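#onboarding

Welcome to the new folks! Below is a worked example of what a typical request in this channel looks like: someone posts a single protein sequence, and someone else replies with the predicted structure as tokens. Don't worry about understanding the tokens yet, we'll cover that in week two.

Example request:
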Amino acid sequence: MLDPWRLRLLTLLESLGTVRAVAESARLSPSNVSEQLSVLEREAATQLFERAGRRLRLTPAGTALVRHARVILDQMDAAHEELAAFDAAEGGLAGGVRLGAFTSALNTFVLDSVRDLTRDHPRLRVTVWELDPADSVAALQRGECDVVVTADLGTGNLSADDLGTGDLGTGELGTAAGFSHGSASIVSDVVHTLLATDEIMLVTAAGAGSQDDEPADLAGFASSRWSMELPGTWTFDLVTTACRRAGFEPEVAGFFASYGPLLAHVEAGLSVTLLPELAVDRRYRVAARPIRDPMRRRITAAVRRSSAERASIIAVVKALRRTVEGRTAKDRTVDGRTVKGSTVNGSTLEGSTVEGRG
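Example response:
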């Protein structure tokens, strides 16, 4: 019989890559981890590992077992959670949920959702991780998070109609499908619930260039210098994709690890950039306007299909939707102009006011 604890070590090996990293994560010695993985291999009665120099690499059978192990572990977590609810004299949800989200989502609705949810369910522990959208779904698939709030430009195989919003009252969290997310691939073991759409804005220094309300033609900024986050991030892909779609390769004036220095660079007149509406920080004197060839990112809550029936995960996604839908539509002023917020199931959200990524 396969031991669940050893299966968890196996999934950690697949995620972290080395026995030493697994040992540090599990607070064991490397020799103990190696011993437990050897026992698991005997339990499975097939070769799960092969040596590659000093590293331990999964065989195809080992990779297949990781896939099943994550389903098994998700179901065990759901069982423990349900049993804990029976034992709770005060009722309500119990257990833990790991929630990943990008910065502007954290600042506008995620933290409010967590506050409201844990107030209603004091025995539910929600641990929040700040994750770039380019990293979040991979973290979900590796089992490092249980729910992630992520974003996609809508350039992949999943249409807005296919995405759906699901019926959380019955535990259905939307539609599983495969679509691209920058360099990451979102496959059919991940289920998405649409939370919002967020318009992409051209951001320039306040008072620079045209200040009318007409959408910006990116081709007119081909000679401008551009700023963006570091290669491999969601907004790096956004700027390069949009500029190439407009017919030019952007001349880069700066790469930044977070939005604060990036917006300061734009504020100083040293560059222009593209950002989602939620990420335009009002503390910086910048002007933001939509682009002529519209681009919008879809903000979704994603979960693993194998854990989609866990009561706590359903509750987290419902809380996210409830907070988003309950936000009052507000207009905001950027450089003397009124700018609408991002569309969120018929509501709008104000822009972010805290530095970060995504």
